[in-house]
Design brief:
The protein is of the alpha+beta class. It has helices at about 30-40, 50-60, 100-110, 120-130, 135-155, and strands at about 25, 45-50, 80-85, 90, 95-100, 155-160, 165-170. It has a three-stranded antiparallel β-sheet, covered by helices on one side. Strands 1-2 form a two-stranded parallel ribbon. Strands 6-7 form a two-stranded antiparallel sheet.
Amino acid sequence: MAEVDESAVPDGPDPAEELYPLVIAVAPSPAERLRLAERLDGIAPLLLVADVDELRRLIAIPGQLPGPAPADPPDPADDALLIDSARSTARYGDREVALTRLEHDLLTCLKAEPVRVWSYAELHRSVWRDEGLERRADVQSLVKRLRRKLGELGTGVTIDAVRGVGLRLTDHRRPRVGGG
């Protein structure tokens, strides 16, 4: 049996018992995650994720389910449009379509604030990450492809143009709540 040399063990608490801060940030767009990484550089270890579901998958204990499993499969009419950033796909019910990086970034941007009307310039900066170019034709072409893919999914979600302002994500399945 080997003896432990007490003089080799440092005084104080066991390093494994010390607490180390970890900053966890949830940001849907890659541009926002990059900005957060730059601002929080050197403060503490940083974990950046696209959504809460991704965070749950990362911190789940192996062999343990992340949450209670639903008893019945969900009704597709109640499903929301889900974006899987890790796989770069959009899912609705049991259907899924692959997204290019630009399509993913545009849909993520619009879905982050679905009521907001985004100008073409804002969308161009968020998706292409370049200042000054802001070409409307780039955005319109990307929106056309993304509308087609949303149609393939069978969602009621689409990208609507607001004349003279820009674009917004609209869910036509759910009635608008408002006076009148």
